[in-house]
Amino acid sequence: MSTNRHDNPCGDDQGSVSVIIPAYNEETSIGACLRSLHEQGCGPLEIIVVDDGSSDGTVAMARSFGVTVLRQDHRGMAASRNLGARRAGGTILVMIDADMILAPDYVERITAPIRRGETVATDHWNERVANWDNPWARCQTWVLNYPDGRRQPVTAPPSSGQYRAVTRDFFLNCGGLTESEGYRADTSIARRTGVFAAIVEDAICYHRNIETPGEVFREARWHGRQIAYVRKGRLRRCIVTALRDKNPLRVLARGFYLALVKREPRMLLYVIYYTAGFDWGMIDALFRRYYQK
User: Fold this and answer.
1) Shared domain check, 268 and 179
2) What is the pLDDT of residues 45-77, one digit of tens each?
3) pLDDT at position 14, please?
4) 69 and 160 in one domain?
5) Is residue 201 situated within a structural domain?
6) What is the mean predicted confidence (pLDDT) over 178-190?
7) Under a CB-based contact definition with an 8 Å cutoff, are residues 209 and 137 in contact?
8) Which domain holds residue 67?
9) Are residues 167 and 191 in the same domain?
10) Whole-angstrom Cα distance, residue 165 to residue 149?
11) Helix ranges, the chain (H)
12) Do 37 and 114 fall into the same domain?
């Protein structure tokens, strides 16, 4: 379970790999994530957990796996990934979340096009729900109109704005992720540079969906804050979103329909909690200019 820096972690001479994991109150999920990293078939990896001001046992759990742990005040996912990238020793960065579990060949597959010199960045497109047995997790998939057990549509796009693996030089030379954007930060480099990630469809991972009504509200609040992020037309955009996309009658009608079709009464509660959190996030961001989770 070594976490020192090694050359040739994936069986060739195209560079070493550093895995960066932002973590904010992830005590219950980060253990499974780190175990899946230690089981990667491509060899030892540098694993860096960036604790983003957690108030639970995230740091202790991460340290129990012998990985590098960096700490900062709560500044959001983008700041965490940027800090990890600056401290990383690998030539390729793999960016994952603390509530992800990786297939044993994930790192090898997600980095392969970069190691072959075909691209500077990749993203996966076979992301499955890790906690499908939870009814709230199923509601999240259904409201997004994804197939059962998946967190993405089946058909992959030609490219992606999100980077799951990227060369360290490119990431740092572009200035890293935009730290003020919150939810949209994942795609900030692609939007600035026009360099999109190649899709790796056979890199499989499992990602935890939300599991409680409180998580539904907090996730939606984060999403809602992004509507107010772009300064131009901020107020008008928020009003249009609240009256059109998040119109209460439309939301309730869809929730009722899905509750019947999926035979899951929590579906109606899900859309109510989500809409309330989303609207609150928009209002909060309009006044406070705060966009983090």
Assistant:
1) no
2) 999 999 999 999 999 999 999 999 999 999 999
3) 56
4) yes
5) yes
6) 89
7) yes
8) 17-207
9) yes
10) 24
11) 30-38, 58-63, 77-87, 106-115, 135-143, 168-173, 188-193, 213-227, 234-240, 248-262, 266-288
12) yes
